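// run 5 | inverse folding | seed 20
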């Protein structure tokens, strides 16, 4: 089941984030996040009207989530957003990432965004494949952009251009 997440889901989102920080290069963070960090994260999402969409398992627990937010904080980028998709480690391989990504694409279209951007570690072949299947295309590679687990990490960007908005404006 898909539903909007709120601050009440912060502990489960936090657990997914912290597992990704500790075990993967999905996030180039070193330290676990806190509930205080999540409160600020949700405030930013709410202020920007950025959805946090959750996929819930049969037992009601959060199996994964997807969201987007500001790409760059300059007015001319107002039609572009950077998204992320996270699936709980025991729920991977069941197609939840595909479902969540499709939902984020739909939400972005409904909010009249034009470009969805995903920043992905170049070794994350599963995420790259997911994005290619959804119609994203590779648009950039930043060599050695991050350092984690004792090595330099290349960051690749994938984008999806949407047909929205119908009438973009400068201001």
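// decoded
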């Amino acid at each position: 089941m898909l539903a909007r997440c709120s601050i009440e889901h912060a502990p489960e989102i936090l657990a997914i984030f912290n597992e990704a920080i500790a075990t993967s290069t999905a996030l180039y963070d070193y330290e676990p996040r806190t509930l205080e960090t999540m409160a600020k994260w949700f405030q930013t999402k709410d202020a920007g009207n950025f959805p946090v969409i959750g996929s819930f398992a049969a037992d009601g627990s959060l199996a994964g989530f997807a969201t987007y937010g500001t790409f760059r904080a300059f007015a001319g980028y107002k039609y572009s957003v950077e998204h992320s998709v996270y699936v709980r480690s025991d729920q991977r391989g069941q197609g939840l990432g595909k479902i969540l990504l499709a939902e984020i694409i739909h939400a972005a279209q409904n909010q009249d965004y034009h470009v969805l951007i995903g920043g992905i570690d170049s070794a994350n072949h599963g995420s790259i494949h997911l994005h290619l299947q959804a119609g994203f295309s590779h648009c950039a590679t930043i060599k050695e952009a991050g350092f984690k687990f004792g090595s330099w990490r290349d960051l690749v960007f994938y984008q999806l251009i949407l047909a929205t908005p119908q009438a973009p404006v400068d201001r």
